[in-house]
Amino acid sequence: MTQTPLKLFNSLTRTLETFTPVHEGEARVYTCGPTVYNYPHIGNMRAYVFADVLGRTLSWKGYSLTHIINITDVGHLTDDGDAGEDKMEKMAAARAQSIWDIARHYTQAYWADVEALNIRQPAKWSIATDYIDDMIAWAEKIAPEHCYELDSGLYFDVSTVKDYGRLARAVTEDGEGRIETVEGKRNAADFAIWRKTPAGESRQMEWDSPWGRGAPGWHLECSVMGEKLLGFPFDIHTGGIDHREIHHPNEIAQNQAFCGCGGLDVAANSGARIWMHNNFLVERSGKMSKSAGEFLRLQLLIDKGYHPLAYRMMCLQAHYRSELEFSWDGLGAALTRLKRIVMVVERLRDASPADPAHPKFAPMRDKFDAAMSDDLNTAAALVALEEALAVKKVDDGVKRSVIEDMDRVLGLGLFDLTRAALRIRPKDAAITEAEIEADLLRRKEARVAKDFAASDAIRESLAARGVEVMDGDPLGWEWKL
Ligand code: AMP
Ligand code: ZN
């Protein structure tokens, strides 16, 4: 199978570009990670499923991947610009806990979601507070030509670099869309790269710097960690679409300053060759983080009886650049689809792997490669996988290897899943699986004995406890809570 060249949509040029690595045979990717002041919602996790699919595709295409995801444990304000309080400080104060404890707790929670969604471990989780010295050194380097000091901190003057805001397609002359929140800023879009602790106050997280005690700006963190760990220019920088508007344009401006680079007609001057952004998961009734009073985090889905990989499936069914609307029905449909696939895969599990290069699978494998190479079209790739599963009269070992190969990219972990594992008991269910199975066994015996009254009574009693008995269900669920 000859591989199709990988095309990716570059937000900087707003075009599809063929991926050509900066370093032969390698792919270096930086993904903006979470601010660990709260649990991630499932919208946040869409950003990491996307980055994971990108990384898996690059590995599958044969590139040696170095993927960095950062953990922001300082510096991200409640507004992406310069307004508001530090998200971490605010949560720590509300909880009367130390920031370090808050960071540790929510980093662990994020990592648990990463694992549950089969997101591969990056080469490194870079923790922002581990790089404070590097950030100060960086700021010292760019300050003379690009920054100015105000009482509140050290500010980056966006008029000192060419093409500021190109990524956002923003009109910068009047700082459109930005609210001037800091007295004395030269341009509305200027941003703090170091925030001084106000006189007479102290922060839980603060460090000495040439500009006084304080903390780094959020945008500086990602520039510094990207440069330190991957070198400029690296291949791909990812994040959610909101980052295209402020965070990434600011990172790019700092990167240009650091490198002494020219304008953005040369994409690599931005620090990365390709900037990629996933669109949002949206919730019709309002904010992602609060839906009908419920916080939409992965654990809520699990508590309601949905396997976390059903959510991964839901993400894969949409293109990453399309908005995806969350609904429980949609999630249920994704779970059913996953289960249909797993039913067939369960039968392949014991077959010995064989060479997947069999002519019968060539059309599906080509289709799969073409789909993934077309800016990660996972929706079409899933169809190719299902078509491969449906191929008749072929050696199970070959089929197994074909599916395994495709799943390396999609990351559903199909060969580790079982139908039983996919059926999760909702947290508030009043009945255990053992009780259900025992009742169903009694019902089967009653039916064999043609005692239909008893069989119906058992069915009714299960229904009263929220168990739907599904006779003849083609998916073989048999029952559902
Ligand atoms: P944050 O912790 O706020 O920096 O967000 C973590 C990641 O989630 C960032 O890449 C955001 O762009 C992304 N993100 C935030 N909300 C959503 C959403 N509703 N859907 C998809 N991605 C999102
Ligand atoms: Zn970032």
SSE order in H/E notation? Answer: EEEHEHHEHEEEEHEHEEHHEHHHHHHHEE
Radius of gyration: 26 Å
The structure class reads alpha/beta
Stated plainly, the CATH topology of the largest domain is called Rossmann fold
Name of the level-1 CATH class of the largest domain: Alpha Beta
How would you describe what is shown here?
By secondary structure, the protein is an alpha/beta fold. The protein folds into three domains: 7-278, HUPs (Rossmann fold, 3-Layer(aba) Sandwich); 306-421, Isoleucyl-tRNA Synthetase, Domain 1 (Orthogonal Bundle), CATH 1.10.730; 429-480. It is 41% helix and 14% strand. It has helices at 42-60, 87-95, 99-116, 132-146, 218-230, 247-259, 298-303, 308-316, 328-348, 362-373, 378-389, 396-410, 419-422, 433-448, 452-464; strands spanning 7-10, 15-18, 26-31, 64-71, 124-127, 147-150, 153-156, 191-196, 214-216, 234-240, 272-278, 281-283, 324-326, 468-469, 479-480. The strands form five sheets. The chain has a five-stranded parallel sheet, sandwiched between helices. A hairpin with a 4-residue loop joins strand 1 and strand 2 (15-18). Helix 1 (42-60) crosses helix 8, helix 4 (132-146) packs across helix 5 (218-230) and helix 11 runs antiparallel to helix 12 (396-410). The longest helix is centred in the last third of the chain and has 21 residues, at 328-348. The protein is globular and about 90 Å long. The relative contact order is 0.12. Bound molecules: adenosine monophosphate and zinc ion (ZN). Adenosine monophosphate is lined by residues 32, 34-35, 43-44, 46-47, 239-240, 242-243, 278, 280-281, 288.
